[in-house]
Amino acid sequence: MLVPGKSKRGVVVVVVVVVEVVGVVVVVVVVVVVVVEVVVVVVVVVVVVVVVVVVVVVVVVVVVVVVVVVVVVVVVVIKTHSLMVLMMMLMMKKQQEVDSSV
Q1: What is the mean pLDDT of residues 9-25?
Q2: What's the whole-number mean pLDDT along residues 79-99?
Q3: Of 4, 13, 58, 75, which has the fewest Cβ atoms less than 10 A away?
Q4: What confidence category does residue 9 fall into, taking pLDDT thresholds of 50, 70 and 90?
């Protein structure tokens, strides 16, 4: 036969053990959730940094290309103008030679 006092102690011990196990499981789940959240935050920060770096590189490349194009255009315009002035001077000199020979 079962002794009533003994069976109650056994049930209490089983309930306490079950509550402790559930508490440990809850703590483990909370730790896993926190670790996953930290990993997600780190991944998001890394993605944002990569996107910012890519945008900065694209902006720098665009600025460099624009500066190079402007410099090339200015140099071409200056050279073209210089050539035009030189050609005009040569034509004037030739015209003077023709005028002086006549």
Answers
A1: 82
A2: 85
A3: 4
A4: low
The rounded distance, in Å, linking the Cα atoms of 62 and 39 is 35
* 3-class SS of residue 12: helix
CA angle 11, 14, 18 (to 5 degrees): 140
Tokens 């945008």 belong to which residue? 55
Question: 89 — phi, psi (to 5°)?
Answer: -65, -45
pLDDT of 94 > 90? The answer is no
- Work out the angle at residue 56's Cα, subtended by the Cα atoms of residues 50 and 59, and round it to the nearest 5 degrees: 140
| DSSP state letter for 102 | -
Domain ranges, ordered by start, for the chain: 61-102
pTM given for the model: 0.54
Encoded tokens for 40: 């997600």
Owner of token pair 């015209």: 95
Residue 33: per-residue pLDDT? 97
